[in-house]
Amino acid sequence: MLYEVKDKLKSDQVVKVAPFRKEVRKTTAHKHNKYLEIVLLTKGEGTHTIDMRSYEIHPPQIFFIRKDQLHHWDITTEPEGVVLIIKNDFVRQVLDKELIRLVEQLSSMTELKLREIEFISDIFRLLLEEMNGEHPSQIVWEGLLKSVLYKIIQQGDRLSWSKLGTIYEAYLNLLYDSRELVNNVAFYAEKLTTTPQNLNRICRQQKNKSASEILAEAILSEAKRKLVYTDLPVNAIGDSLGFKDASHFTRYFKKHIGYTPSVYRSISC
């Protein structure tokens, strides 16, 4: 292997936020270990190369580096900014599906130039203070994280979104904005006026996951929410998610989560 694989998270961390290290100017090409890295730069000049494509650094600017991407920095002036790291396991643990959708949506991006930075910088500062405080509150930092991700999307230059990214984003919107999920990729491909094969290719390109894997994550997230926040019987939850019977839902849930729905509900409530 000709490149380094870096891991900036402790084993029990799923999210980390820290100031961009001012001494980081030039790095060798490396990848990350199972996490998305979002880098906000407010100062600095030079280039950032991601998958052999070089981007000029012109703050305010955000870079998104997925675990499968090779990248390196060549910064010529003192940088300032914030680094946000989100582990892949995060989307399987959080119950706020809007937050999941925002993370998934931004993970399809590579670079965004921002029109306005003050409000985003303020939220990042509050997030940094909360997560690195003596007694961080998950409710608080999840709310701040959701706010900053939403503002990034809102403030970003929409011309930066590729067509493939737009289709991927539309797929996520169908999954996370829907009141009822259908466990069938072809159903969503038809709604997007594409084929299951093309949707699968787009998901692989944008997220390095199949369309069915992304659908499974959405179904499991919705199942966990209903198990924790409703009193619906397990068979009714399985039925609402399109499973043919309770035993099929129980096997599916245990295969992916490691617990049966009933056990998951008992340890989560």
By secondary-structure content and strand pairing, the structural class works out as alpha+beta
Task: Please tell me the overall pLDDT.
Answer: 86
Major sheet? 5 strands, antiparallel
Secondary-structure element order, as H and E? Answer: EEEEEEEEEHHEHHHHHHHHH
Alpha-carbon Rg, integer: 20 Å
Number of structurally distinct domains: 2
**CATH-level-4 superfamily name of the largest domain:** Regulatory protein AraC
Shape: globular
Low-pLDDT sequence parts? 157-163
CATH C-level label of the largest domain = Mainly Beta
Spatial ordering of strands, largest sheet = 2-9-4-7-10
Looking at the overall shape, the CATH architecture of the largest domain is Sandwich
- Let me know the number of strands: 10
Hey, roughly how much beta strand do the residues contain?
Answer: 15-25%
How far is the first residue's CA from the last residue's CA?
A: 45 Å
Domain HTH araC/xylS-type: 169-267
InterPro entries: AraC-bd (IPR003313), Homeodomain-like_sf (IPR009057), HTH-like (IPR037923), HTH_AraC (IPR018060), RmlC-like_jellyroll (IPR014710), Tscrpt_reg_AraC-type_HTH (IPR020449)
Keywords: DNA-binding, Transcription, Transcription regulation
Protein name: HTH araC/xylS-type domain-containing protein
